[in-house]
Structures are given as C-alpha cells and as structure tokens.
Amino acid sequence: MDDLLDRARSAVSQRAELPGMSLLEHLEELRRRLIHSAFYLIAGFAIAWGFHVKIYGLMEKPITYALQQHNLPTQLIIHNPVDGFNMYLKISFMAGCIIASPFVLYQVWLFISPGLYRNEKRYVMPFMAATVSLFLAGAYFGYRWVFPDSLNFLFTFSKQFRPLIEVNEYTQLFLTVILGLGVAFELPILVFFLSLFGIVSPKFLWKNMRFAILIIFIFAAIITPTPDPLTMCVFATPLLALYLISIGVSYSVSPARRRKKKEQAKA
C-alpha cells in the first residue's frame, strides 16, 4: 500500500511539471464540462423516454420467461398508482445515461487532457470505444446469461410459494445486476489510467493477484442475486479474465516500457 501511495504521489508531481492552467481556469473548465455533460444527459433522457415502453419490455423479458417456465402468472404488481410512472422515469434515466455516455466521457477526456503528455492524448478514441464497449459487454453478459439463470434458480427453490413480484423491487434487482456487471467490466480501463500515470505496474498487478481474486469474489458475492456458489463463480470468472487482460494493458502503456522503446529508437 505504501508503495502504491508513493507511485501516486510521484505521478502527481510529474504531472504538476506540465504547463497547465491556474486554479480559476481549472474551475471554469470544470464548470463548462459539467454543463455540457448535463445537457447530454438531459438529451439522452429525452430520447430514452420516447422508447420507455420498449425499454421496459426488454427489462421485463427475463422475469416473464422465468415465470412462464414455472407456470406462474407473469404480470408484475404495483402498490401505489405512481409506482409505474416512477419506474418508467428510473429506467429512462438509466438508459439515457448509457446513450449519453460517449459524449460525457469525451467531456471527461477534455477536462483531463491538459494533464497528459502529447503522446498520451492519442488514446482518446480507443479509450472512448473501449469504455462503452466493455460496459455494454458486461451488461449484455448479465442480461443474456447471469440474470435469467439466477431467476430460474430462485423460482426452482420457491415452488411452494406464489410470487407477487413488485415492479419497483424487480427494477432495482435488474439494475443492480446489469449495471453492476457493466461497471465491473470497466476494470481494464481503470488499470489503463493507473498504468498510464505510473501508479500501478504489470509487476504490481501480478504480485497482488491473490488479493485481486479475493476482492473479485467479494464483489461477485455482493451483486449476485442468489446465494449459490455456482452463480457467484459465473459472475467472477469473466472478471478474473478481465484482470489478466488488465495486466497486459498495463504492460502495453507502462511508463517503463515507453521509456525503453524511446531508448531503443534513439539507439
């Protein structure tokens, strides 16, 4: 941990040597990026609201299929007349965030770019493409395999009960699993930035793999909707694969490797 903090301090001190803006200029730039991001989020919400019924249809599909498999009523229930409207607002907002994410990420990149070296700024397009692609891959993995299998498992062990599934509770469970996996799949992006700034190295990641495995399984246990170890392993397996990929990502952008390539080019 002390070594990691030392690396972070070193990275900050090196970036401080770059020609930058004053504190007021940074605050003004931050305000501008936040305003632009808010505009994109509002636009994304407006677009998603136009398709809120279709979005709900996609969200309802896993529970409907699981209920049909067990010959159970498929209609979800509400306890309050506003519950349905609130649910549509929630899923439209989350879908809007996904729609707006490439534009918001670009605003983030514009804000941090003054603190990057010129050769590092070429990563903007791969960064945006990889971030969105990994999130969608994680969300699809949860939607296509993990969530339906988890629901089937739960209904199999609840055959003696008649389920009354409340729409807001189901929405919360759905978003927790799908968004949780989407965010978890961003691990290579996090490692990319930490490695780019010299905070972590491939050696550090490999050396601490046992701790990473423990953290991954704890995270999988938190977001897994069922208590069985098999489902938890299904969650954890792609995350372990992504961690190994992250080590390769760290190696490709680590400052030590870049310095070595420069020395070889000069020689």
Can you put this structure into words, describing what you see?
With 267 residues, the protein is mainly alpha-helical. Helices cover 78% and strands 0% of the residues. It has eleven helices and no strands. α3 runs parallel beside α5, α7 runs parallel beside α10 and α9 crosses α10. The two termini are 37 Å apart.
Instruction: Give me the Rg, rounded.
Output: 22 Å
String of helices and strands: HHHHHHHHHHH
Mean pLDDT: 85
Structural class: mainly alpha
Name the beta content range.
under 5%
Helix content: over 70%
Question: How many extended strands?
Answer: 0
Ends distance: 37 Å
Based on CA inertia axes, which overall geometry fits? Answer: flat
Number of helices: 11
Please outline what is shown here.
This protein is mainly α and 267 residues long.
Keywords:
single chain, 267 residues, mainly alpha, 78% helix, 0% strand, flat
Topology, pairings included?
Blueprint: H1 2-16, H2 23-49, H3 52-69, H4 83-112, H5 124-156, H6 167-184, H7 187-196, H8 202-207, H9 209-223, H10 229-253, H11 255-266
